[in-house]
């Protein structure tokens, strides 16, 4: 759907405030003493739109952009981002030559990954960050296999096909800053760096911290931090430490216009399975978005909505394209604007409120918003 077909809020839209993104990037930078900042824009910038967010982040001083998968990194280059980009999730057979030719920093967590990367080199050497699994058991070499990874990387570095530009890992429990797991991972990381140095490696950028660690664990900052969710103004700690207390501003507001308003009598059942029945005569509003747009079906009978300044609730099951809000006795009409979530500063629900209603985390609420919801950017700054 091209933007010109959706000139303004007709059915639904997600308004993304790029001034909020720039503010959040600057706020995160202010937390750092000497470390560089990588803004993580994977998964279409957590649903906010990768290219506009990456541009805003660079404007606010992001030194690096982080992408999970190769398509994302290549799309950033194609959009004209010429700065450092790190991409950490590839599978056998992916077009690494294209990544290397585009100067994208890659990750390797096993000797075979070094071999694949080296095989993709044509002219310039590949820039590689070695990943140590410090305890999360996702990617990376476990400590027992770390020396083998180092040897493979060193060999290719000697051949001139690879340059080791970083050593990195990821924290499993940074959102619980007091968890002993953080200290254990930090120790394993430091030991891995020592081992690498004992092999004569200059580790380059050492990096470990996501948003939670950037905000709460300064000892994990090393040379580079990789915040994602905080860039979007959402707290990695949920309600335990709301974003406003961290000085962050939520960037996304999800709005829709009511497709239908009707008065129903007491006893009227609502939506599939009739899981909600009006206890008294009620005014219902039809919101034209559903789980096909990324609204979580688990928030059926509970998702919060702001309508005409009041906090109201989704009743009945959330369907693929629509859901029903109980407007109680409010005056309302088809075409009225409702807000599903936003920064919360105008009394509207937040992504955290939707996360609570669905039994999930704010990350999932924004990231799952689908392509059927047009993104409208405000406060864009031209380069
Ligand atoms: C490797 C890596 N680094 C950084 C991040 C950013 O994490 P967060 O959004 O919690 O800041 C992620 C996201 O999960 C990740 O997978």
From TrEMBL:
<dbReference type="InterPro" id="IPR020622">
    <property type="entry name" value="Ala_racemase_pyridoxalP-BS"/>
</dbReference>
<keyword id="KW-0663">Pyridoxal phosphate</keyword>
<dbReference type="InterPro" id="IPR000821">
    <property type="entry name" value="Ala_racemase"/>
</dbReference>
<dbReference type="InterPro" id="IPR001608">
    <property type="entry name" value="Ala_racemase_N"/>
</dbReference>
<feature type="binding site">
    <location>
        <position position="320"/>
    </location>
    <ligand>
        <name>substrate</name>
    </ligand>
</feature>
<dbReference type="Pfam" id="PF00842">
    <property type="entry name" value="Ala_racemase_C"/>
</dbReference>
<protein>
    <recommendedName>
        <fullName>Alanine racemase</fullName>
        <ecNumber>5.1.1.1</ecNumber>
    </recommendedName>
</protein>
<feature type="modified residue" description="N6-(pyridoxal phosphate)lysine">
    <location>
        <position position="42"/>
    </location>
</feature>
<dbReference type="Pfam" id="PF01168">
    <property type="entry name" value="Ala_racemase_N"/>
</dbReference>
<comment type="similarity">
    <text>Belongs to the alanine racemase family.</text>
</comment>
<feature type="domain" description="Alanine racemase C-terminal">
    <location>
        <begin position="251"/>
        <end position="378"/>
    </location>
</feature>
<comment type="function">
    <text>Catalyzes the interconversion of L-alanine and D-alanine. May also act on other amino acids.</text>
</comment>
<keyword id="KW-0413">Isomerase</keyword>
<feature type="active site" description="Proton acceptor; specific for D-alanine">
    <location>
        <position position="42"/>
    </location>
</feature>
<dbReference type="InterPro" id="IPR029066">
    <property type="entry name" value="PLP-binding_barrel"/>
</dbReference>
<feature type="active site" description="Proton acceptor; specific for L-alanine">
    <location>
        <position position="272"/>
    </location>
</feature>
<feature type="binding site">
    <location>
        <position position="138"/>
    </location>
    <ligand>
        <name>substrate</name>
    </ligand>
</feature>
<dbReference type="InterPro" id="IPR011079">
    <property type="entry name" value="Ala_racemase_C"/>
</dbReference>
<dbReference type="InterPro" id="IPR009006">
    <property type="entry name" value="Ala_racemase/Decarboxylase_C"/>
</dbReference>
<comment type="pathway">
    <text>Amino-acid biosynthesis; D-alanine biosynthesis; D-alanine from L-alanine: step 1/1.</text>
</comment>
């Amino acid at each position: 759907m091209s933007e010109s077909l959706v000139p303004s809020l007709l059915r639904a839209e997600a308004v993304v405030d790029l001034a909020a993104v720039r503010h959040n990037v600057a706020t995160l930078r202010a937390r750092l003493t000497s470390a560089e900042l990588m803004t993580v824009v994977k998964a279409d910038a957590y649903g906010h739109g990768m290219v506009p967010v990456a541009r805003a982040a660079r404007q606010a001083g992001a030194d690096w952009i982080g992408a999970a998968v190769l398509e994302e990194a290549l799309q950033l280059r194609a959009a004209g981002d010429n700065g450092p980009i790190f991409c950490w999730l590839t599978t056998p057979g992916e077009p690494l030559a294209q990544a290397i030719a585009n100067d994208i920093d890659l990750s390797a967590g096993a000797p075979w990954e070094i071999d694949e990367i080296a095989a993709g080199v044509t002219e310039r050497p590949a820039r590689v960050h070695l990943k140590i699994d410090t305890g999360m058991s996702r990617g990376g070499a476990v400590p027992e296999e770390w020396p083998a990874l180092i040897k493979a990387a060193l060999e290719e570095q000697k051949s001139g096909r690879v340059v080791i530009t970083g050593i990195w890992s990821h924290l499993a429990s940074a959102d619980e800053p007091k968890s002993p797991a953080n200290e254990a991972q930090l120790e394993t990381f430091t030991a891995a760096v020592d081992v690498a140095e004992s092999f004569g490696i200059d580790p380059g950028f050492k990096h470990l911290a996501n948003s939670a660690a950037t905000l709460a664990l300064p000892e994990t900052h090393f040379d580079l931090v990789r915040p994602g969710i905080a860039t979007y103004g959402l707290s990695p700690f949920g309600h335990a430490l709301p974003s406003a207390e961290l000085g962050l501003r939520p960037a996304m507001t999800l709005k829709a216009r009511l497709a239908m308003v009707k008065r129903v009598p007491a006893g009227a059942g609502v939506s599939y399975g009739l899981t909600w029945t009006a206890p008294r005569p009620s005014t219902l509003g039809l919101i034209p978005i559903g789980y096909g747009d990324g609204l979580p079906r688990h928030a059926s009978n509970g998702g919060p909505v702001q309508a005409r300044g009041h906090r109201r609730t989704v009743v009945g099951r959330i369907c693929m394209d629509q859901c029903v809000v109980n407007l109680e006795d409010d005056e309302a009409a088809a075409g009225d604007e409702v807000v599903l979530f936003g920064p919360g500063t105008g009394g509207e629900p937040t992504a955290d409120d939707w996360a609570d209603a669905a039994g999930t985390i704010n990350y999932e609420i924004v990231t799952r918003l689908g392509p059927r919801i047009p993104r409208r950017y405000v406060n864009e700054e031209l380069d």
